[in-house]
Amino acid sequence: MQLPWWWELGDPCAWTGQGRGTRRMSPATTGTFLLTVYTIFSKVHSDRNVYPSAGVLFVHVLEREYFKGEFPPYPKPGEISNDPITFNTNLMGYPDRPGWLRYIQRTPYSDGVLYGSPTAENVGKPTVIEITAYNRRTFETARHNLIINIMSAEDFPLPYQAEFFIKNMNVEEMLASEVLGDFLGAVKNVWQPERLNAINITSALDRGGRVPLPINDMKEGVYVMVGADVPFSSCLREVENPQNQLRCSQEMEPVITCDKKFRTQFYIDWCKISLVDRTKQVSTYQEVIRGEGILPDGGEYKPPSDSLKSRDYYTDFLVTLAVPSAVALVLFLILAYIMCCRREGVEKRNMQTPEEQMKRPFIHVFLNLQ
Fold first, then answer.
1. CA distance 268 to 187
2. Strand 196-203 relative to strand 222-228: parallel, antiparallel, unpaired?
3. pLDDT score at 77
4. Taking all residues of the chain, what is their mean pLDDT, rounded to a whole number?
5. How far is the C-alpha of 88 from the C-alpha of 134, rounded, in Å?
6. C-beta neighbour count of 53 within 10 angstroms
7. Which SMART domains does the record associate with it (predicted)?
8. How many whole angstroms separate alpha carbon 38 and alpha carbon 32?
9. 222-228 vs 141-148, strand pairing mode
10. Confidence (pTM)
């Protein structure tokens, strides 16, 4: 007899000896069994809360291992389940995600990643993201809710922002915590700020870049924006000097003294670096004066009068029909005259005298005899 799946988690019952066929659940096994059931149910019905800060990069990994246990039948102990799992994410009640939130999953056998930079407009407003996992082998689904509570950040936004273009990375590789940490560490060594935050990460494909050829392990490239509280260092300013600008216009690499601090792991295109000093930007914000939301009174609606004069379209109909008919008739007469009265043979025969018409057969007979 084949035992049910939960029986292989551990025999929940033991013989008591109080009577043949009487079984009870031992205390140790009871705790294990209930813990397993509670874990499964908590995964199915739990909502997860996260608390990102506005203006700071938010990354949330959708782990396949977390969802594998929700697609029965569960594998036996010792077996490895590697079902293809994909995810669909959307704002609750809407077909897509918020504008600041992106999602990427390279293959059904890799984890999905939600990432983006929350905006200040959404501070204090819980954003509920519905996450639906699809098992592509069993066609079963599991749904979770991710509640994003955006918090206001101190000194938002940071006044000095720099955007780097890294050529040898894909966006999902850059989103890994250890890789992003290494990059921020290299930037901190060059910039020496007191506060340094990753603001946003964007794939080069989202900026109009081309999909790389699948040769030589080519990457798509990724833009990483970071912010700091101190002015840009002299190394970052080197790309702005005339010599480097000329080299960039000639599609040559500029000479940057601190490039060696990145080159061991990150290949930066210094010609595409963007330095933004928000302390020098003139604010163009105009305060919006909101009204009461009521349109001005335009008076009572007056529909057209029922006593409209009737119009006779008979004359218009005759003109519309007669003019094309007259033109067509004239053209027909001209064509008939040309085809019937202006034929070449008939015209020449009519121009000959009776004597010429009598001589014409004898000349043809004489020429035929010769």
1. 12
2. antiparallel
3. 62
4. 78
5. 8
6. 17
7. CADG (SM00736)
8. 10
9. unpaired
10. 0.61
Reading the block at residue 279, the tokens are 């302390």
Instruction: Sort 42 into a burial class: Cβ within 10 Å, 0-12 / 13-18 / 19+.
Output: exposed
| Dist. CA 308–CA 319, nearest whole Å | 24
Domains for the chain: give ranges and CATH numbers: 48-150 (2.60.40.10), 160-277 (no CATH)
CB distance 164 to 268 below 8 Å:
yes
Backbone conformation region of residue 352, classed left if phi is above 0, alpha if psi is from -120 to 50, else beta:
beta
Q: Are 229 and 158 in contact (CB under 8 A)?
A: yes
Identify residue 15 by its one-letter amino acid code.
W
User: Residue 25 pLDDT > 50, yes or no?
Assistant: no
Is the model more confident about 270 or about 71? Answer: 270
- Which residues on adjacent β-strands are paired with residue 365? none
**Radius of gyration in angstroms for the set of CA atoms belonging to the chain, rounded to a whole number:** 42
Q: Which residues pair with 47 in a beta bridge?
A: 145
Helix, strand, coil share of the chain (percent; to 5): 35, 20, 45
